[in-house]
Design a protein that fits this description.
Shape: globular
CATH class of the largest domain: Mainly Beta
Structural class: alpha+beta
Helix content: 10-25%
Number of domains: 3
CATH superfamily of the largest domain: Immunoglobulins
Order of helices and strands: HHHEHEHEEHEEEEEEEEEEEEEEEEEE
Length: 405
């Protein structure tokens, strides 16, 4: 007789970790637990099943948290993409990185385009029918200029109930990325849908071109297995499945001269990853109607120190504007915008509320050196605002501020 106490029930979670293994908790228990039990062991098993069932339910509740997907289509040759990215980053940067998924798809226009444009990035743009940038998709919808992104939109992106639980892990070793994604439907899905997985580099610098940006964040490097994603089958609510992917970056680093297709990175022989330590992997499930059911930042099993950390509190804007410092933040009666100029230029500083309405603007012709632009904020309602500074060449810096009275 096999004693139930001898069953390695601690191996239960491994059932859900198998690549492309589909099953429910009840199927596992029926198939793998012994049936010839004594009465006392049966009572123990009953208690164990109840406890395990509650743990499994708790897992589903925890995993169904809505993580919004923000896709931004941009280019280092696109002047309005600079302020669009600044506004977006000003809103999301103060938040925990685990609370949202961000992917930037560098594009092949205007002009000759961003050096980190890829065929997969262009295909993702065509998937949405996008013909102008900057453009931002929120959970597969919204489809607007990132400059119009607000705190209200961020908050609302997290309100829709998740339709899938989605978790996973990844590892990067010797330029090989291995990924395991687990997913389970939380409600009936009436349309076909796919799992998308993207390898992104947290920040890049080498793709600088003409729009004034010097850092680029969450730049898509490769989709797994490709831009088309992986079609998911039909599941019962609560059924969990998993998929595994592997991609090996080849050859040495090459910086394309531009974003045109003839100069795209050839995956079979080269790569454009600046630092492999800065790679991360994200995933999302999306329906044929383009609705995103949930997204996830996958857990790095072997995290490494950033070999090229970003400088703190330094924002180089353009050939005219060296740095911008905003204080105090939160502000009460006055907000100071300290601008360090490299050369003569006209700058415009605008405050907008989260609905996008302009509440204050100042224009100044500044000479080289440090200048203090002061906003009277004592009559502005308490809350969050976006500050955007642009120079005469439309290079821009953005930051989210708060006003408290």
């Amino acid at each position: 007789m096999v004693n139930f106490l001898q069953v390695n029930y601690l191996s239960l979670p491994n059932y859900y970790q198998k690549s492309s293994s589909k099953g429910t908790l009840s199927n596992y228990l029926i198939n793998y637990l012994p049936c010839n039990l004594s009465f006392s062991n049966f009572l123990f098993m009953k208690k164990y099943l109840l406890a395990t069932g509650m743990l499994f339910s708790a897992f589903l509740i925890q995993a169904q948290t809505r993580i919004p997907l923000f896709e931004i289509f941009t280019s280092s040759t696109c002047p309005p993409c600079n302020p669009g990215n600044k506004v977006y980053e000003g809103i999301v940067d103060p938040k925990p990185a685990s609370d949202y998924v961000s992917v930037k798809f560098q594009q092949d226009f205007p002009g000759t385009g961003d050096p980190y444009c890829t065929a997969e990035g262009v295909s993702r743009r065509n998937y949405y029918g996008i013909n102008s940038i900057p453009r931002m998709e929120i959970n597969g919808g919204w489809d607007q200029n990132a400059q119009s992104f607000t705190q209200v939109l961020y908050d609302s992106s997290k309100l829709a109930p998740a339709k899938y639980s989605l978790t996973g892990t990844f590892d990067v070793t010797n330029k090989v990325v291995t990924v395991n994604v687990k997913y389970a439907p939380l409600t009936h899905i009436g349309v076909s849908h796919k799992l998308y997985v993207a390898i992104v580099e947290k920040h890049t610098q080498n793709n600088v071109k003409s729009n004034g940006e010097v850092y680029f964040f969450n730049v898509m490097k490769k989709m797994m297995p490709n831009y088309a994603g992986t079609t998911l089958g039909t599941f019962n609510v609560g059924d969990q499945d998993s998929l595994s992917f592997t991609f090996a970056f080849q050859g040495s680093y090459r910086l394309p001269i531009d974003g045109q297709s003839a100069n795209h990175i050839k995956d079979i022989s080269e790569n454009s990853v600046e630092y492999f330590e800065n790679l991360k992997v994200v995933a999302w499930i999306q329906g044929s109607d383009k609705e995103v059911y949930n997204a996830a930042n996958l857990v790095n099993l072997s995290p490494k120190a950033d070999p090229n950390p970003l400088p703190l509190a330094v924002h180089t804007i353009s050939a005219s504007v060296q740095t911008v410092q905003v204080s105090p933040n939160p502000a009460s009666n006055n907000l100071h915008v300290n601008v360090n100029m490299i050369r003569n230029d006209a700058v415009t500083v605008t405050l907008t509320n989260l609905a996008g309405a302009v509440v204050a603007t100042q224009v100044a012709n500044l000479s080289p050196g440090t200048h203090d632009i002061i906003f009277d904020t004592q009559n502005l309602p308490s809350g969050f605002y976006n500050l955007v500074l642009t120079d005469a060449h439309k290079d821009a810096y953005g930051e989210k501020i708060s006003i408290m009275h």
